[in-house]
Amino acid sequence: MTHKRSTGAIVALAKKKREETAQQVEQAIKQLIKKNERINFNSVSCEAEVSKSYLYSHPEFRERIETLRKQQQQQVKSPKAVKRQLYLGETIHS
Questions:
Q1: In a domain, 30, yes or no
Q2: By the number of CB atoms within 10 A of the CB, which of 10, 46, 55, 94 ranks highest?
């Protein structure tokens, strides 16, 4: 006598877990933006309680984090740039 294995429940549970994890990452990114904190793989993985390898292996999260990180880096001026502006008498806009 052979038994049929029902994998439907397992597949549904895995799908639910994937969706919940994706929501955790989205929520973490939103919270970091709201708190005006740095966006990078470390900060998102800590806030979302997921591994960095999870973030790197999901292209949609990887691209989003890299884009946000670049945007933040462009907004932040280095101390050297600020000193240069002060020395040249330019106004500083943050």
A1: yes
A2: 55
**Residue 32 resides in a domain:** yes
Q: Which domain holds residue 18?
A: 14-88
| pTM for the predicted model, two decimal places | 0.70
Q: pLDDT tens digits, residue range 13-25?
A: 999 999 999 999 9
Residue 26 lies in a domain: yes
Distances in Å between the Cα of 31 and the Cα atoms of 14, 26, 53 are 26, 9, 21
Give the tens place of pLDDT for each residue, 16-53.
Answer: 999 999 999 999 999 999 999 999 999 999 999 999 99
Q: Are 63 and 57 in contact (CB under 8 A)?
A: no
- Answer whether 30's CB lies under 8 Å from 1's CB: no
